Each structure stands twice: as structure tokens, then as C-alpha cells.
Amino acid sequence: MIESAQVVIVGSGMGGGTLAWGLAQRGIDTLVLERGDVLPREAQNWSPEAVFVERRYKPAETWLDDDGNEFHPGVHYVVGGNTKVYGASLPRLRERDFAERVYPSGVSPAWPFAYADLEPYYGQAESLYRVHGSVGEDPSEPWRSSPYPYGPMPHEPYVAETMLRLEAQGLHPFSTSMGIDVRPGGTCVRCQTCDGFPCRLGAKSDAETCALGPALAGGSVRLLTGARIRSVEVGDDGRVVRLHGDVDGEPLEVSGGSFVLAAGAANSAAILLASRSDRFPTGVANSSGLLGRNYMVHNNTHLAAIDPRRRNDVVFQKTMAVNDYYEDLGDGYPGGTIQLIGKVQGSMMKTHATRVPLAMLDRAAQRSLELLVMSEDLPSVHNRVTVDAEGRIHISWRRTNYDRHEALLAQAKRVLRKAGYRGIFEQRFSIDMNSHMCGTAVAGQDPATSVLDGWCRSHDVRNLFVVDSAFFPSSGAQNPALTIAAQALRVAHETDWGLDA
Ligand SMILES: Cc1cc2nc3c(=O)[nH]c(=O)nc-3n(C[C@H](O)[C@H](O)[C@H](O)COP(=O)(O)OP(=O)(O)OC[C@H]3O[C@@H](n4cnc5c(N)ncnc54)[C@H](O)[C@@H]3O)c2cc1C
Ligand code: SF4
Fold it and tell me: Using CA of residue 336, residue 167, residue 173, residue 306, what is the dihedral sign?
């Protein structure tokens, strides 16, 4: 099959789907190539067994760690990408996250643009993704020029009481910024199977529902599903002339004016690394040697905190977070964020606690509160994505900045114990829990130390862009999706598409 468009986007997730929406606003002829299909709305969408135990929506594909062990990565190859199952917590990064931060064990580098440059696009992304939130509760929140489009999600009584217990300790728990359609007349029914599950009602603000779908309706954007891109071809003039891949098993060639990789941090790097040739022995857009390097994932731990005296009857749990330790954990260095996650059910615990009887897990789940403790990891050239001769993805990964995570984790546990939680169980994220991955094609001003410029354009190949989480120069300690979306809108709006092609 041969295809062509003014702008060709590879991947329809947070970066690609949002960029397509931005280009649709400008009427630009755009083709989105997505390796997956539309995720069906079906009963299994909300089945913990189907989603977590049978991994119904995850690819069979495995990646390899440094020791050659296979693992199932946290990716979803469907229209909308990982946002189809994400938890829809959509915070902004903090203003300080865009500047250099010095930690005891390393440096979090500055971004090539400031919070102020992204701020208007954060507001647009919040409107596009129907974000519900509240101003003035979060002590670390950055300034904003527009209010949240919708007010915060109400807390259920169990969460409200937990917040009082935290406030009694001098903390400032606040309403999580959520992309869930609980607007007046909205279609969300506030179910227990949201975080990690697809929404059977289309009420979750994922990239297909909020960005790509409306973009396709405009007429200037087309979508080709089942289309996997494997490499890019650079012409004698130093510009990309074609993408190569396959669609439903048949060869696919796509020409165009500008080419955007938005296949997720690992796959976008993998496509460029796999495009190696005599002319580009280390891959395309890799004169810095940094392509695939600086792979970050956040330092994350799930906690299950059990208060045996209180039954947790909450349905939608993910409404509260604590950022009191974001800038300073009390020792002059940043800690990170502590946030509620979706209510975990016994059958979901079964994927890890395989030997514990389900009835026992169900009883524990009835009295537990589940949280995510998240802190910043640091870019390291040793943490990297590579691709072997068969095209398989390899991940080299060692934890960075982990002393900060240990300190935040210890503080989170102290606070929870004071709030009445007697048993606290933890699950530290391992190499396969990489859904917050970023940084494999970092943006920067200097072509010697970065792969992309501040508008996600390759320093080397000027009609090539990477508009997904790969551009992050640092990971911050906030959920990444809103920042990916805001930057996609900025790139869509501020790039002279086609006129420069
Ligand atoms: C369970 C879960 C919960 C999460 N919760 C949150 C949350 O609450 N808040 C938050 O901010 N983030 C959350 N995330 C992370 C968030 O979903 C990602 O950060 C975000 O989707 C990344 O956007 P992206 O554009 O980089 O990649 P993706 O959204 O993953 O999109 C990549 C797309 O490219 C396609 N693709 C890949 N390779 C190719 C190829 N070779 N050819 C063609 N297409 C290709 C994929 O199929 C996919 O559609 C969560 C993720 C998961 C898995
Ligand atoms: S809570 Fe609302 S948005 Fe989330 S899956 Fe349920 S109905 Fe959908």
C-alpha cells in the first residue's frame, strides 16, 4: 500500500492523537498511522479478570532486560494508546520542574522552554480533556491563566474522612485533577473499574475520545489502523522522504511533507534506531548519540494501607492527592507526590499475590486504601532503549535518585500510620511497570546534548518530529499525560507545517 499526506503521524496516543486534533484546527492534511485497532466497547472492559489476569488489551509482545529476561511492557497498541486504560489523573508539572534541580545524587536538567511557554497550552489541553479540578487547595500548584474547565470530583465519605485525618497532621490534601466526564449531563457513572481499565461508556478523557475522534470528524485528518511503521528513509537532501512498515501483513510506504513519531518513548526511539544504514550507522536523528538514552519511568511504589476498623466502601477512589512534600521533604530536597489510585479489588491483587486465596484478598481489599507514591528519577545515558537485528526492544534500566524515593516512601508510611492505617503493604514498580516512560529523545537547545529542539523537531532531520513522552528532558514527579498533550498542542500551533517541507 502507498499512502501520502502533508503531515504523517505515527501513533494515536496522547502525543499523536492530540497533535492530530491541533492540526485539524488548522485544516492541515494529516494521516495518522496506528499499529493497533479500535479497542471495542464490550463487557470485558470492566472485568478485572479480563484486564489484569488475562491481559486482554495488552500486546503479546515482550521486551528484554539487560540479562535477556523477557517482560511484558506497560504498553497498549490500540487507537488512543495507553490513554485508553490510563487513570486520567491530569496534573500540570510544577513551574520549578522546568528548571534545573540539584539532588544529592544527581541533576534534573532544565527544559529548553519555561512553564510560561507551555502554560496557555496546558489550559487548552485541560479544556480538550475535560479536566475537573480545584484551584487553591494544592500547596505546590503552579500559576494558571485560566480556571479549570470543570469543578473537582466530589470525594466519597471514606476519602473525605481520610482527608480530615491528614489535615489533622497539618497536611493539605487536595482534589486530584481528573479527566472524567462528570460534567452536568456527563456520561460517567462513577464505577470502580476506571484506573487501568478502558471505559465502556466513553466517559474517560482518552486521546481517542477527546482528540482523535473529533479530529477525524473535521475531514482533514485520516486514520489508518493496523499500520505498523518500522523505519524512516532519509533522502539525499537530508530530509525524511518515506516511512516503511506494513499494514495487515502487506508492505506499506508513506510519503509526505513532515513526519511525526508519536509511538511512545520506547517505540519512537526504536523506529529511529532501526533505521540505521551505512549513512546513519547509529540510526536516524542520532548525531548526538543520545537517541534511546535517558530512558526514565518515575520512581513509583503502590501502597495498600489497611485500617482494620474501617470498611472502605468507596466506589471511585482516585479523587485526592498530597503534594506537601513535592518541593521539599523537610531536608531541602524535593520528595514527590502521594496520590490515591483506583480502588483495588481482590482479583487485581491476585496477579501479584498468586498464592493467597482470593477470599482473603477480597477481605483485605474491603479495608484497604490504595495509593501511588511517585518521585522523580533522573536521566542517565546508561538507561536506554536499543533494538536488536530482529527488531526486538531491549531496555537497560537501573534505578536513579532512589534515595529520594525511599525518603518519600518512609514519610508516606509515617503519615498513613498516624492516620490509623496499621498494616501497610508495598509494591515497588519493576521494569515492566513502565507506563510513565519518557526521555528517549530528549529536547534541548544544544544539538550535541539533545535529540530534539524545544518544538520536538529533530536537530538533524528538519522535517522529522517526535511528539510523545520521548521529548521530556526530565521526568518531574507528576503524571505525564497532560504535559504530553500540552506540548503536542504547542507543536501543532507553533510549527510552520508544510510551508517548510
Ligand atoms: C494503566 C495506566 C495508567 C496510567 N495512568 C495515568 C494517569 O493517571 N495520568 C497520566 O498522566 N498518565 C497515566 N498513564 C501514562 C500515560 O497513559 C502515558 O504517559 C501516555 O499515554 C503516553 O503518551 P504517548 O503519546 O507517549 O504514548 P501512547 O499514548 O502509548 O501512544 C503511543 C501509540 O503509538 C502506537 N504505536 C507504537 N508503535 C507503533 C508503530 N511502530 N507504528 C504505528 N503505531 C505505533 C501505539 O499503539 C499507541 O497507540 C497511565 C498508563 C497506564 C498504562
Ligand atoms: S469511572 Fe466513569 S470514566 Fe471511569 S470507567 Fe467508569 S464510567 Fe468510565
Answer: positive
In a domain, 500, yes or no: no
* CB of 13 shorter than 6 A to ligand 1: yes
Q: To test ligand 2's pocket by mutation, which of 194, 206, 318, 341 has the most ligand atoms within 8 angstroms of CB?
A: 194
Residue 499, domain member (yes or no): no
Helix (H) or strand (E) holding 428: strand 423-428
- Asked whether 12 lines ligand 1 (CB < 6 A), one says yes
Residues with CB under 6 A from ligand 2: 180, 188-191, 194, 197, 199, 201, 203-204, 316
Contact between 289 and 39 (Cβ < 8 Å): no
CATH of the domain at 281: 3.50.50.60
Selection from 304, 273, 278, 284 nearest residue 384 by Cα: 273
The domain in which residue 428 lies consists of 2-494
Residues whose CB is less than 8 angstroms from the CB of residue 187 and which lie 6 or more positions away in sequence, other chains included: 181, 201, 202, 203
Burial of 339 (0-12, 13-18, 19+ CB in 10 A): buried
Burial degree of 70 (CB within 10 A; 0-12, 13-18, 19+) = exposed
Q: What is the pLDDT of residues 57-83, one digit of tens each?
A: 999 999 999 999 999 999 999 999 999
pLDDT in tens, 265-321: 999 999 999 999 999 999 999 999 999 999 999 999 999 999 999 999 999 999 999
Write out pLDDT tens, residues 396-409. 999 999 999 999 99
How is residue 61 annotated by DSSP?
-
